[in-house]
Design a protein that fits this description.
By secondary structure, the protein is an all-alpha fold. It contains three helices and no strands. The termini are far apart.
Length: about 60
């Protein structure tokens, strides 16, 4: 499960990017797709644009 620490000096998008990248590298998405943008944003209580930004960075 991904956790965003709002008290951290690191921006939300950096925390999310690192967490998702680690999960991907660990094979947690080998047989499935990433969580839909709207769902992940709601679960983490962050903006959809933050999730979009991270997904775009992961795809690059």
């Amino acid at each position: 499960m991904i956790y965003i620490n709002r008290d951290a000096k690191e921006p939300n998008y950096v925390q999310l990017y690192r967490a998702l990248k680690q999960e991907i590298e660990n094979g947690e998405y080998a047989q499935s797709r990433l969580t839909p943008i709207r769902v992940l944003a709601d679960e983490l209580k962050i903006s959809k644009s933050t999730v979009v930004q991270v997904y775009q960075q992961l795809a690059a």
